[in-house]
Design a protein that fits this description.
three-stranded antiparallel beta sheet, elongated, 2 domains, alpha+beta, 10 strands
Length: 306
């Protein structure tokens, strides 16, 4: 029997997790410290030789719980700084997360090995055997803890009232077209790359490094163009049109072209008539997306029909 393994899922770009962001990082490492401390005190998962201990077992547990918390805090603080400094390299995937978590666990294992002389009487503290033992224990316990926390977070997030749209009614395109056919002149960093755009034709825009892919629909024909401009710069020149919404770090969507909305573990997926491509709505933008949709729907229903 063949085992199917979806590799694409590991490399698919996702939002940078909120738990690693600066505003939540201290809370994250505090939770990790508490869980590890309770785990070590209550279960004593690893072999303990009290005759070799230089200090009280409770102090040793506190030290082993504090080490990964401190390492994670400074590691992701540095990572957040580098991500902010190099805006073009902000992509994130499950593979990225597993790699960074693995580096953190390896660092914790090495530091745990280096402090053995301070907490244990053992002539072989500086041996390859104990280096391997500390690194192995960190990976075994760390991987179990990581997936335990991920499952717990998924459970609590699923219980939150995020006001999702379960019954989606497509907006009327006529409400957009009533604004006229005024072209927008979009300025880029290089004048020769400036271009004009009919906002009524825009389905969505997708960030691709320092470029964006613009999907437009004219006379039921889908067109994809690559423009040299960042998505943030492009969005700032469309601010006067409230039909456009930045639903994801890498996507901007025209609310009037959305035909269907489905829910997944990352948030929502938006579908369109003229393309099989889907646009994600990140969990951080769910409430804002729903609020704008309800506002546009209310405006549409209250507008007089001719």
């Amino acid at each position: 029997m063949k085992i199917y393994f979806n590799r694409k899922h590991l490399f698919k770009e996702i939002d940078y997790p909120d738990r690693y962001r600066k505003k939540n990082l201290f809370k994250t490492v505090s939770i990790i410290f508490g869980i590890i401390l309770g785990f070590l005190i209550l279960l004593k998962p690893f072999e303990v030789n009290t005759s070799q201990q230089k200090v009280n077992y409770f102090f040793i547990c506190c030290l082993h719980a504090l080490l990964p918390a401190v390492i994670l805090y400074f590691y992701f603080t540095a990572l957040n700084y580098l991500r902010a400094k190099h805006a073009e390299n902000k992509s994130w995937s499950l593979t990225s997360e597993y790699a960074h978590v693995g580096i953190s666990l390896l660092s914790t294992g090495i530091v745990s090995f280096l402090i053995r002389d301070f907490i244990y009487f053992n002539q072989n503290n500086w041996s390859w055997h104990y280096l391997w033992e500390e690194v192995r224990n960190c990976f075994v316990a760390g991987i179990l803890l990581y997936f335990f926390i991920r499952m717990a977070m998924f459970y609590f997030e699923s219980k939150k009232d995020t006001s999702l749209i379960f019954q989606f009614t497509p907006l009327d395109l006529k409400s957009q077209n009533n604004s006229g056919n005024t072209l927008i002149y979009v300025k880029t960093q290089v004048k020769q790359d400036d271009f004009t755009l009919d906002p009524n034709d825009l389905l969505f825009a997708k960030a691709d490094g320092n470029y964006i892919e613009i999907a437009t629909c004219n006379n039921n024909q889908l067109n994809i163009e690559l423009k040299r401009i960042s998505l943030t710069q492009f969005e700032s020149q469309l601010h006067s049109n409230r039909n456009f919404f930045r639903c994801h770090r890498a996507f901007l969507v025209n609310m009037c072209y959305i035909k269907n909305v489905t829910e997944n573990s990352q948030g929502l997926m938006l579908s369109f008539d003229h393309t099989v491509d889907q646009v994600p709505v990140s969990r951080a933008q769910l409430v804002a997306f729903n609020a704008l949709y309800q506002e546009l729907l209310l405006t549409q229903s209250s507008s007089p029909s001719y």
